[in-house]
Design a protein that fits this description.
By secondary structure, the chain is mostly helical. It has two helices and no strands. The chain is elongated.
């Protein structure tokens, strides 16, 4: 498995985790837990943005990874 493929898989996993955190925040009544999940979702969003930039760079440098 190439680095490009691994980065894209990590990006998909991170997007799933972000969605889970957002869902958990909406489902809980515990305000401390709600804040924790919201913070985790925000941190995941930042990591997603960074990984998306990295994927764009990889695709520019290695055109064979486009569309995977």
């Amino acid at each position: 498995m190439t680095v490009g493929t691994q980065v894209k898989q990590a990006l998909v996993s991170l997007k799933s985790a972000q969605a889970d955190f957002e869902s958990f925040a909406l489902q809980t009544q515990d305000q401390a837990a709600k804040q924790l999940y919201a913070n985790c979702a925000t941190q995941a969003k930042g990591m997603i943005q960074q990984l998306e930039e990295r994927v764009q760079y990889i695709e520019q440098e290695e055109p064979e990874f486009q569309g995977f």
